[in-house]
Design goal:
Elements (H helix, E strand, L loop, with lengths): L5 E5 L5 H5 L3 H16 L2 E2 L8 H13 L5 E5 L9 H13 L2 E5 L8 H22 L1
Parallel strand pairs: 1-2, 1-3, 3-4
Amino acid sequence: MSAKTKAIIYCRVSSKKQVADGHGLDSREVRCREYARDKGDEVSGGGDFMKRPGMVKLLQYLDEHSENERVVIFEDLKRYARDTVFHLKLRHEMALRNATREWLNFRFEDSPEGEFIETVIAAQSQLERQQNSR
């Protein structure tokens, strides 16, 4: 019998207004927890990772708990990173820590083609963010 995969959930919203005027983080965390449980993963914590220091804490957590296989679940690919460079760096940092990444709304193959599609979608997300701020 193998140990369950530890699932770490990363949730964030884009603004303080989304926190004050709704349940953005709550609903995202609930959806990610349900997803992990449906897969049979063991959910380990949640957390308010709205600020970049939260990402630092997430990576530190992965470093300190390297004894188990881990998956980091993101509610939406657009909540993963704000730009393509950060997306690619974060993908690299997760790989260094042997943590897999999953999103509720995307599935990427572990192949050169899957990596290419992920990069294109990250670039598209960056473009949308830049257009919205314009």
